[in-house]
Design brief:
Blueprint (H helix, E strand, L loop, with lengths): L47 H31 L2 H47 L2 H15 L6 H10 L6 H13 L3 H21 L3 H22 L6 H18 L6 H8 L1 H6 L2 H24 L12 H8 L5
Amino acid sequence: MSKQKTRKPTSFRVEDVEVIAMPSVATEPALPAPRIRNVPALERGLRWGSILLGAVGGLVTMAATVWLYDWALALIARQDMIGWIAVGLLSLAVLALVMIVLREIAGLMRLRRLDHLRHEADSATRQNDKALALDVAQRLKRLYAGRNDMEWGLARFAEHEQEINDAAELLRLAERTLVAPLDPQARAIVATAAKRVSVVTAVSPAALVDMLFVGGQNLRMLRRLATLYGARPGTLSLLKLARMVLTHIVLTGGIALGDDVIHQLVGHGLTAKLSARLGEGLFNGALTTRIGLATIDVCRPLPYIDVPRPRFRELVAEVAGLNS
């Protein structure tokens, strides 16, 4: 018998094996990608409604101007006491109108100054720009110059500003000495307005009264906060500030104040025992608090660098009387 040779098993690696992918038997053909056609913009013709309103407004303004001009000439032509009294009253009215316009322009400029200061201070802090930080500090000193409540802060800042060479540290000093002393007053203004809104909403029998009171209290709170930080807004600048605050709330996502937020603040058990009017009052107070904090963010001339930002939940709990 012949001896059979025993073959040793050949070792191989998995990496050496070439895997051939077999095509699928039933493969669906690839669908062509849909073409996205540019939808032509709808061409609008002349806006006749806008033209009509503009023409009517121009005619009314022209008629009022001509009537006032003829009336003033007729009064001057009288050459008697009634004519001169009327001319004096007209001059006084024109002077008051000019002063109101100048006050509104000044209010808009002060509001814009606060916004520019905040953005430039944030840029100087991030980029460590000493020249920009010095410029912001000098403008902040000019903003608060002449205020009796800022004398101590201005003196302390002037005492230590020459010793600092870092931009961020200089702005931290400005925040601690000039802006931080105003923050507790701003917090008190917000808390007072929110408590008033909560109480009046809870006891008021009419929804219209609630809306008018809440709107008036919020506008009053906006004016007080802006005045505290150096804006002193007029009517137009107050409306612009309200628009800026609403935009800030929408961008930061803080408008969602539902029942879940109230539950987290006061607890499910207490919320269940509250009546509908008390719950509505608490909700309106929380909404006023959110608007107040957004107003502080908009009107504060410096960003929060070293001072902690006020927390919404803590302030709402304080308004609701849940803080010990």
